[in-house]
Amino acid sequence: MLVDLRSDTVTRPTAAMRRAMADAEVGDDVFGEDPTVNRLEARVAELLGKETAIFVPSGTMANQIAIRVLTEPGDEVILEADAHPFHYEAGGAAVIAGVTLRLVAGVRGVLDPAVVRAVVRPPNVHHAPPRLLSVENTANRGGGTVISVERCVELANVARDAGMHSHLDGARLWNAHVATGRPLGEFAGPFTVANVCFSKGLGAPIGSVWTGPRSLAEKARRTRKMLGGGMRQAGILAAAALHALDHHVARLADDHARARALWEGLRAAGLDVEAAPETNIVYVRVADAPVFANRLGEAGVRVVAVAADRVRFVTHLDVDDAGITYAISVCARLVG
Q1: CA of 210: how far to CAs of 50, 58, 259, in Å?
Q2: I need a labelling partner for 107 at 20 to 30 A (CA). Which of 41, 69, 133, 283 fits?
Q3: Residue 230: how many CA atoms within 13 Å on its side-chain side?
Q4: DSSP 112
């Protein structure tokens, strides 16, 4: 048996999603003529409460567009110390936007508004001007933690009061929405710009959507083009995202339930599990994470060692109850 718990990015399009892709009406999106892309952009903009939206290949590109359009070279971006743009985007903020990243420690990936307020430095010729606050929701390395609507509002207000813009990296915002029942727009609304991803829990093969005010749309599209993200008959990909919106959002609750079952099973087996999952990510502390991950892989359970002593398990639509049971049994054997 093979159970791939490395990431929710390993999901494969369902047969129904593939049919939707095959049947998609397409055009040249760089010319703005792909009707399926246009439908997706309009729908996501409405869901997130923003004026406009742009379909891009990846969440990393959406994040980099957000940083580029809201800053100038030499500016400072404030973000939680484990946030995606710092850990997983190949230094793109420095190369593409020419900015510095100010890392602030949070609790399970959640920033404290008072701490953010305290690190915002006043104007000074010696300092990089603080220009943007970026928030990741859910917080991947925090354990899939949900940043509550109330905390989102507080953080965006801190940024606004300091004369800064704000950005919501909502790659897994769908999980926060399902876990809390709060509308997507309540999470995204307080921020200047926000983006969501379709190739994680929603199971599409590719694609994210950046959203924001119309005043930034031209600069955002130009940045997308500069980064090589201007796609042509992209409706084939947008159709997968639309299918996911219709069929794969509510079912995220299944992933959350399986993550909780996994957490409970690993804890019962004697593993040092971190806090109970709020969504679909479980972290375990082990003495030698790479070795532990390799041994699991040899037994058919794929995970990721994210640090020398930390292993990540992520549930998704390609893992069923039997897969969770098997993963628990393999882990139990290894520590037994």
Answers
A1: 10, 10, 28
A2: 69
A3: 14
A4: P
What is the residue-averaged pLDDT of the chain? 97
Single-letter code of the amino acid located at 305: A
State the pLDDT confidence band at 335, using cuts at 50, 70 and 90. confident
Sequence-distant (6+) residues with CB within 8 A of 283 are 143, 273, 274, 306, 310, 311, 312, 313
Q: Which domains, from first to last, does the chain contain?
A: 13-247 (3.40.640.10), 251-335 (3.90.1150.10)
Q: Cβ contacts of residue 64 below 8 Å, gap of 6+?
A: 85, 89, 92, 93, 96, 97, 223, 227
144: CB partners within 8 A, 6+ apart: 138, 172, 175, 259, 277, 278, 279, 280, 281, 282, 314
Question: Tokens 């999901």 appear where?
Answer: 11
| pLDDT over 80 at 53, yes or no | yes
**In the chain, at which residue ranges do the beta strands (DSSP E only) sit?**
3-4, 52-56, 76-80, 100-104, 130-136, 165-170, 193-197, 208-212, 272-273, 281-285, 301-302, 304-307, 310-314
Closest CA to 9 of 281, 199, 144: 199
Contact 262/283 with Cβ under 8 angstroms? Answer: no
Task: Report the C-alpha gap between 201 and 169 in whole angstroms.
Answer: 15
Strand order across the 193-197 sheet: 52-56, 208-212, 193-197, 165-170, 130-136, 76-80, 100-104
- Take residue 119 and report the two structure tokens written for it: 């690190």
> b/e map of 30-43 (b: 16 or more CB within 10 Å)?
eeeebebbbbbbeb
Q: Which two tokens stand for residue 225?
A: 């083009």
Angle at 216 between CA 210 and CA 219, to 5 degrees: 90
